[in-house]
Amino acid sequence: MRWGCLVALLACLPLQLAAADQPPAPGSQAMGALLPRDGADAAVFRGGLVFGNYCITCHGMNADGNGRAARLYNPRPANLRQSDKNDAYMLMMIRRGGQAMGRSEFMPPWGAELTEEQMSDLTVYLRSINSARR
Ligand code: HEC
Asked: Is 93 in the pocket of ligand 1 (CB under 6 A)?
């Protein structure tokens, strides 16, 4: 009987250790600690999701201008990591598109497709991955 208890305990041990490696369940308190409900980190996270849905075909998943469709365009989709433009310009470019800004018509206007929050989040995300010094 006592041995049975010991075996049961040992059998559970690896499971408990493995459980500690699992990411917290969505909506759990631990997840809340990782992703603040709002603030700059949350905006970066949301902006990254929007970018993944709408922008990577041209700008690439690393935002370096090397998306799958990039070679179809001349000028090429911008390397958004190296952009020297400020946030206001980036936001306007996203909202109004290239043509309205005197640039390539192949940069689409996103103002009718995305919400203000999504476009603002994109701008915060692009700032977070930008390594160009201004
Ligand atoms: C169909 C291809 C295409 C898609 C999709 C696209 N872009 Fe672009 N984007 C371009 C091209 C081409 C340029 C370069 C325009 C130029 O140089 O005249 C550009 C330029 C830009 C610029 C200007 C950067 C700078 O330094 O001047 C920003 C900002 C930008 N894109 C953001 C986005 C975002 C955010 C998305 C997703 C919501 C997106 N683009 C989706 C093609 C695309």
From this structure: yes
